[in-house]
Amino acid sequence: MEFIKSNIWLIGLAIGSGFMLLLPYFKKSAGGVPNLSPTEAVTLINRSNAFVLDVRDDAEFASGHIADATHIPVGSLATRLGELKKYQNKTILVNCQRGMRSAKACDILRKAEFTQLHNLQGGLNAWVEAKLPVVSKTAASKAGVAKTTAKKSASSKKAANDDAENEVS
Fold it and tell me: What global pTM score does this model have?
């Protein structure tokens, strides 16, 4: 007993250190839903054909998202669960910007008895930081405009060539 009294600070430090060593293990599965790194998420998407659910707001989603992601903001997720019923027993990767809203979305989905949920740890920020590709509506729109412009200029060149050939004959 004397030993404990005289070394209480060292014992507290040892217990605190042990807790800090175990902390990453506890954070790995927040709320019963596994957190995945971006590389683990890519593996999950490729191997399990995971359904990607983006729960950010409209502006964030439009600025860039994971390819083939379905967008349902976390605020309207509870009312739109019917849209996701067909994925209830399939692998789902939930993401937001930093990982906090997706954890909340995972809780909503877990309570609705979705079985194979995964949270993208660090959200889209971690995804971009890992230099993984994102799709944006503005880039897709610009690409569509560029294709249309290219088609128009190609067809106008063809029409000009046709006119020139008609004048020659």
Answer: 0.67
Give the span between the Cα atoms of 122 and 81, in whole angstroms.
24
Cβ(87)–Cβ(62) under 8 Å? no
34 forms beta bridges with 29
Whether the CB-CB separation of 62 and 138 falls below 8 Å is answered with: yes
The stretch 71-93 carries a mean pLDDT of 96
d(CA 97, CA 56): 7
d(CA 100, CA 150) in angstroms, rounded, equals 43
Residue 34 DSSP SS3: strand
Residues contacting 83, CB < 8 A, separation 6+: 72
Average pLDDT of 14-33?
70
Parallel/antiparallel/unpaired status of strands 33-36 and 29-30: antiparallel
